[in-house]
Structures are given as structure tokens and as C-alpha cells.
Write a structure and sequence with these properties.
Strand content: 5-15%
Structural class: alpha/beta
Distance between the termini: 60 Å
Low-confidence stretches: none
Mean pLDDT: 91
Order of helices and strands: HEHEEEHEEHEHHEHHHHHHHHHHH
Helix content: 40-55%
CATH architecture of the domain at 1-89: 2-Layer Sandwich
CATH topology of the domain at 1-89: Beta Polymerase, domain 2
């Protein structure tokens, strides 16, 4: 049902199949599927042998599909192979159109605004209809998004970061005024210059969108691209187009955003590190040996050396910082002798000194 049928019609690989049960109740479901386990709180969702079953409140599949979010998801196939769909669903799938089944469905579950933005990233060639933009704008304007649970929003964010065109997610939310409250930092980003004209010819939003799409394929890197300039969204307008100290402010904002969305700790740490260290990493070849050592050790501890390299190159197309990996291997090869180890701060300072010497000696 839903995504599996849609992907089948599109000729895409089907990852997971889920089922909707209509015209029955939990007792009947348990009778037909012994051992089925209820896992849904808000919705009546059950698991059985790896498959997911949703117990619909509707009596017919046609009525159930009319309550879905987008027409491309309002399709189902019966056990006899018969295809069901909301009006226009199959045509919209074939034509590549993102359209709401009904505007009121977005008010019944405002998360559908976030889901629609995610689908625009998953299906970048699909056209977003004015009806969908209107539905998203109306829900955003009415302040309904604040009632959605953080975990549900966070899950959509993670899926969007893994999409082929992740920037479409943020772009559509911005275009439809649906950034508040979950992404409120970005509300004025489309009118805030990314920097002096000599260095940036886009807004903070435009620059961030470009970086995100350059990083597509690695969800963690995309999230770092999402967060790297978040500090610029809070710059005092009197200081524009400069953004002095945005990396320090951005570290806190990125961490707050990750926590707000209940993202995994690795994403929270990566977003904060991207905001804090991308400027220094972007000047890697200008740094003194000690600063390079400290940066590499910090990124190695976070497991983000490769991701930071990718971010820097996406942030400054044409700049290649592959030397970071070479230098990391060089400093990790430095060892203290047994008699120099285990002496606390003295040993740490000596190791850092030797590592600096190793980088200073590079050719």
C-alpha cells in the first residue's frame, strides 16, 4: 500500500511493504495474524513477521485513501491485485505531480507539511502544485505545526537529509512560510546576505541550499551543510553583510536545533562541529602547525574528518583539503616512548609538540 505501490508504478525498487486493514478490528487482526504486536501509540500500527499493518478507522479502502496526505501516496493494491487510488492519484504518479488529497487532511495531521517538503526532496523532478503550497502555507500560518511531536519531525528531517535533492526540503518550507517553530532560525535567511559581495552573491538560505545539494548522498554531511552557517541567521542587522563570530553563535544554535528535533547524538555533535569549525577548516592551508594539530585531533575524536573535508569543499567549490587526511595520518603515527607516557599534562604537551614538529617537517 502507499509507498510500495507508488514505487512499483514508478518502476522503483520496493524497500518495504506495509498493509492497511479496513472493515475489521484488533481482535479480527489477531485472529488472522497470531502473534501480531501493536507498536503504534497515535495510530493503530501492528507488526507481524517484519511487515507493518495499520488498522484503519474507515470501513472501506476508498474512504481510507481519501484521508491520506499526497495523491501519490493514496494508492493501494488489494490481495487480488486490484489497484485502488484517490481521484487523480495514478495520473499524478505518472505525471510526476505532488498534490494534496485534500487541504483539510493537512490540518488533521500537520506533520504532513513536513512530509510534503521531504517528498519534494525525495522526488526532485516532481512538480509541486499551487494546491500543495496553499495547504502548507495555511497550516503554517495557523500555527498548527507546533503541536507535532519532535520525534516525528526529526524522523522526516533525517529522511530528507538522505534524499537525492535534500535542499528542496528546506526550500519548500521556506517558500511556504512553514519554518516556524521547528526551523524558526531560517525565517529571514532568504533576505540575509551570506557575506560581503566579494565572497558571496547569495542569501544565507541560497548558499545553504547549494551546499546541501553538493553534499547529497551522505545524510550526516548534508546535515552539517544545513547547520554550517546557521549562526549567520542571528547576525545583528547593523553588522551586515559581515557575520563576525557567527561560528561561535552557530555552534549553540545548531546544537539547540538538533536537540529540538530529537536527532541522534551523532547528528547533534556533527551539526555543532560544522558551525563551529568550518571556517577554520576552510583556511586549512593558512593555519599554523599547532592549530592544524588541534583541529585534526578534535575532528578525529568526533569521527568527522572526512565529513568536514567534504563540507569545506562544498562550501568553497574549487578548494581541495585532501591534505587534512594526509596530515592526520602523519600526526597519528607520532608516538611517545614508554618513559614519556603516563605523566599527565606533561605527556600531552610533549605529544602535541612532536605532532606539530611532524607537520612542520612535511614536504
Amino acid at each position: 500500500m502507499g509507498g510500495a505501490v507508488r514505487d512499483e508504478l514508478l518502476g522503483r525498487a520496493i524497500k518495504d511493504k506495509d498493509y492497511v486493514v479496513v472493515g475489521g478490528d484488533a481482535a479480527e487482526l489477531r485472529h488472522h495474524l497470531p502473534g501480531v504486536k501493536c507498536v503504534g501509540r497515535r495510530h493503530r500500527v501492528y507488526l507481524h513477521r517484519g511487515a507493518e499493518y495499520t488498522l484503519s478507522a474507515e470501513r472501506t479502502i476508498e474512504a481510507d485513501l481519501l484521508g491520506r496526505d499526497l495523491t501519490i501516496n493514496a494508492v493501494a493494491k488489494g490481495s487480488d491485485g486490484r489497484l485502488y487510488g484517490a481521484p487523480g492519484a495514478v495520473n499524478d504518479i505518472e505525471a510526476g505531480i505532488l498534490r494534496p488529497v485534500a487541504v483539510e487532511n493537512f490540518f488533521s495531521d500537520p506533520l504532513r507539511v513536513i512530509r510534503a517538503a521531504r517528498f519534494s526532496a525525495v522526488f526532485p523532478d516532481f512538480r509541486v502544485t499551487p494546491e500543495l503550497r496553499h495547504a502548507m502555507s495555511q497550516v503554517g500560518a495557523d500555527g498548527c505545526l507546533g503541536g507535532v511531536s519532535a520525534e516525528r519531525v526529526g524522523n522526516e528531517v533525517l529522511s530528507a537529509m538522505a534524499a537525492p535533492r535534500p535542499a528542496n526540503f528546506l526550500r519548500l518550507l521556506s517558500d511556504t512560510g512553514a519554518l516556524t517553530p521547528w526551523f524558526a532560525e531560517w525565517s529571514a535567511a532568504d533576505t540575509t546576505p551570506a557575506g560581503p559581495p566579494a565572497h558571496h552573491d547569495r542569501s544565507v538560505l541560497g548558499h545553504t541550499l547549494a551546499v546541501m545539494d553538493r553534499l547529497a548522498g551522505n545524510p550526516l554531511s548534508v546535515w552539517m551543510g544545513f547547520c554550517h552557517d546557521i549562526g549567520k541567521t542571528a547576525t545583528d542587522p547593523a553588522g551586515l553583510p559581515q557575520h563576525h563570530g557567527h561560528e561561535h553563535l552557530g555552534e549553540r544554535l545548531a546544537r539547540d536545533l538538533g536537540r529540538r528535533l530529537r536527532l541522534p547524538q551523532r547528528f547533534i555533535r556533527a551539526g555543532a562541529a560544522a558551525a563551529r569549525w568550518h571556517m577554520i577548516a576552510g583556511r586549512y592551508y593558512e593555519l599554523r602547525a599547532g592549530t592544524r594539530v588541534d583541529l585534526l585531533v578534535r575532528l578525529k575524536a568526533l569521527g568527522l574528518v572526512v565529513e568536514m573535508m567534504a563540507l569545506v569543499e562544498a562550501d568553497k567549490p574549487g578548494l581541495h583539503v585532501d591534505q587534512m587526511q594526509v596530515d592526520l595520518e602523519r600526526i597519528l603515527a607520532v608516538r611517545l616512548s614508554p618513559r614519556e607516557m603516563g605523566r599527565g599534562a606533561w605527556s600531552g604537551a610533549l605529544l602535541r609538540q612532536r605532532r606539530c614538529q611532524a607537520l612542520g617537517a612535511r614536504k
